[in-house]
Amino acid sequence: MAYLPVSRIAVTRGLGMARDFAGITALPPDAADHLALIVEEWLNNVTEHGGASSGGRIVLRMQHLGGFVRLTVSDAGKPFDPRTVTFDGPNLSRGGGAGLALIQAWCRIADYARRRGRNLIVFEMPLL
Fold first, then answer.
1. Domain boundaries, position 81
2. How many structural domains is the chain composed of?
3. How much is the pTM?
């Protein structure tokens, strides 16, 4: 489990954690790449759009559970349940918008809860 600052450094550290985790748990290369992108996209969204204070923390946990990887993320940003979001295509003017679609395509959003002012999201990524 890691505690990351609500800043761009969270993305860099989270991406490094995902790569380290993939190596330690011997994930297949495609699964390792998917995990890294899921972590990067989610942390980008939390830090850019989540609205949490810069003094706050993002909690990140990864577990290898047989046929899947469970990724649990907690943040003190605005309430946001990714299961309710639909993808209307990339934002051509900003150059983004595909991250949630990738996350939804590569993993199951197993749970979302709002507890004590924090989002708690559980992703489960099947191993290929």
1. 2-126
2. 1
3. 0.91
